[in-house]
# Entry
Amino acid sequence: MAPASQLSTLSNPLVSVEQLSNSSSQLDGVSVDLEHSIRYAGAQLTQAAGVLLRLPQEIIAQAIITLNRFYIGPEGGSVRTHAVQDVSAASVYLASKISRLPQSPRSVLNVYAYLLSSASPLFHPLTSATPPGSPEPSSYYLSEGAYQSSRTNLFTTESLILRCIAYTTHVSLPHHLALTYLQTLGVLPSDPTHTSKALAKRTLEHLNTALLSPQILYLTHQPPALAVAAIYVAAKEVEVKLAENEWWEVFDVDREELGFLVVALRSMDGWVKQDIGQWKARKRSCPLTIAELEKELVGREEEGG
# Structure
């Protein structure tokens, strides 16, 4: 990725083709589809943790992008040696630390203790298990000894992330850009209508969904392109007519890039359903720890044999 000093405030460091095709996880024997599932589960976990910590979406998005940056390329981390649940927690802690709403290690770890417990509803839809109506608090209680151990691991993982991403914590998001573009296009007036509100809402929803994409769109495309693609898809869904000419070129986005991103955004729903379906068929949820991943790899090897 490009050094932060070469970036403007509206751009992000992007990954190379080599980094996309040769991740450390794949070199460690993790298949591409399994890696995508784990990254998606990690992004889901990060999003849920941010919501429970009452963090704004801006900080949650930064945490998800940091998580994905860590696992990119042969020089990045591997899900086989660095559990996604640990990297997720450290990413949330790091993103909040450099924001206006820093979270304490105890707050972050308590939230993750709950989300990873049997009381959490987060990953139960992927299995046949049903979380109890009144979960037992002891199932997600973090003892003092467990807290001290987890706290040490949190700090260690945070340091590892920073070294791996070369301390590039800068993240530029497309959300505000998208709203500005909508105003420029004349479809988001100062006195919003029901339709313009729906268009803006749907645009932001697509940008948030893109954070979970296995194609890691925020690491392969700059914010202006993401904003334009989200507007394009949202306008089609809400049935709002935009300028007849190639308006995206005004925002320095070419047709080829726009086409790729539109397909990626529209295919996200189908990919998620497919991912949920495969784990339901296996009657287990996506592995979030190293032990669970090793068990999954052994099971797949036996199935293949």
User: Anything to note?
Assistant: The first helix runs from residue 17 to 21. The chain has 13 helices and no strands. Residues 83 and 289 are 5 Å apart (CA to CA). The mean pLDDT is 90.
